[in-house]
Design brief:
- By secondary structure, this protein is an alpha+beta fold.
- It folds into three domains: 53 residues, no CATH class; 58 residues, no CATH class; 216 residues, Metallo-beta-lactamase, Chain A (4-Layer Sandwich), CATH 3.60.15.10.
- It is built from eight helices and 23 strands.
- The strands form four sheets. Strands 1, 2, 3, 4, 5, 6, 7, 8, 9 and 10 form a ten-stranded antiparallel β-sheet that branches. The protein has a six-stranded mixed β-sheet with strand order 11-12-13-14-15-17. Strands 18-19-20-22-23 form a five-stranded mixed β-sheet.
- Helix 7 runs antiparallel to helix 8.
- The longest helix is centred in the C-terminal third of the chain and has 14 residues.
- The N and C termini lie far apart (44 Å).
Length: 356
């Protein structure tokens, strides 16, 4: 059984999840189980139905890792009678004899008989004090290479970033009719603010840093540099594409200066965290020990990594040090899946050590 969150429903094990409204979704245990109670309500090619936590006799999360020579490693893929395993820690990689496969990742092909795969079964609890249904820790949509997030209170909804062109329909399907009251832009690049105007026309108020107010549609007002030598060519293409792809014109409703508690005035249990470097006005949100960090860090290549571009390398490094100091449970990045701080920390520390 693959890693994920599962529930026992009517004696059968099902994968479970949440929609953007925090409602608990049950997915079919078998392909032929899609009876009239299951529906593809979000036109995403996957049937589900809304249930309540009390409908499950058990709920748990499965997390797997590979124990190799007594150390915890992660499985990248299975190839015949071998696993490709990897770590992010440089010292551990040297001790185990792993090869560097990327800037901060080290891997090795090993016989399956040399690895002990351990799957942890962690009880999954539902906080039913907040709502009648479950409240997922992180609500997110990955589409078109970008990741959008949602924060909710009893009376308001805040969308973090809007994605690039083609994302609006996916956002609408994911939101499922949920009205967006505020759009918080982590920074003013087109792959994050492309749909801001469309959402603003529907009544959402746009929040952006004062320092990025002139950046939308004017990418070269803050030209980026490669954060590592290997990104020099990529940086060149970024400068070109950033100049070509201009977001739809909009005017932010709220400009954030030094007020770190502005979101609290809107009813959100969240603090604004300045994370300059990728842009001068890059902002994050710290809520429930999750740091929504925009492009201050990335999981663009399905693993924790340093953002390829920054307007200021020094400011970016200061923001990375701030992330280490905050030490959140997870980093909700602007590209890719949310990553654990356990996985992100060695990547950040290695970069800061190498590029002093």
């Amino acid at each position: 059984m693959k890693d994920g969150i599962y529930g026992v429903y009517n004696g059968e094990v099902h994968r479970i999840g949440h929609n953007s409204n925090g409602e608990l979704l049950l997915f079919p245990a078998f392909d032929n189980e899609t009876d009239s109670t299951f529906a593809d309500g979000y036109h995403a090619g996957a049937c589900s139905k809304i249930i309540k936590p009390e409908d499950l006799s058990e709920a748990y999360e499965l997390r797997s890792y590979a124990e190799y020579r007594g150390y915890k490693t992660f499985i990248a893929r299975s190839v015949g009678d071998e696993y490709e395993i990897y770590v992010n820690d440089h010292a551990l990689a040297q001790e185990l004899g792993f090869d560097r496969c990327d800037k901060y990742a080290y891997n090795m092909m090993v016989k399956k008989t040399d690895v002990k795969v351990i799957t942890e079964k962690i009880p999954y609890s539902f906080d039913q004090k907040k709502t009648a249904t479950t409240e997922p820790r992180i609500r997110y949509l990955i589409h078109g290479g970008t990741t959008c997030y949602l924060l909710k209170t009893e009376g308001s909804t805040l969308l973090i970033d809007t994605g690039l062109f083609g994302n609006l329909k996916a956002l609408d399907r994911w939101l499922g009719g949920c009205k967006v009251d505020y759009v918080f832009l982590t920074h003013g690049h087109a792959d994050h603010d492309w749909n801001a105007r469309a959402l603003q026309k529907r009544g959402a108020k746009i929040i952006l840093s004062e320092k990025d107010k002139d950046l939308p549609r004017h990418f070269m007002s803050q030209p980026v540099k490669p954060t590592m030598p290997k990104y020099r060519f990529r940086n060149f293409t970024q400068l070109v594409s950033g100049s070509v792809f201009r977001t739809h014109r909009y005017t932010p409703d709220i400009l954030i200066g030094d007020d770190r508690d502005y979101l609290k005035s809107l009813g959100f249990d969240a603090q604004i965290i300045p994370l300059p470097g990728h842009t001068y006005g890059s902002l994050g949100i710290l809520s429930d020990n999750i740091l929504y960090c925009g492009d201050a860090f990335t999981a663009l290549w399905k693993k924790p990594d340093i953002t390829p571009h920054a307007v200021s390398i020094e400011l970016m490094k200061e923001s990375l040090r701030k992330i280490l100091e905050i030490d959140p449970e997870r980093l909700a990045c602007g590209h890719g899946w949310p990553v654990s701080m356990e996985a992100a920390r060695p990547v950040i520390e290695s970069y800061l050590a190498e590029y002093r």
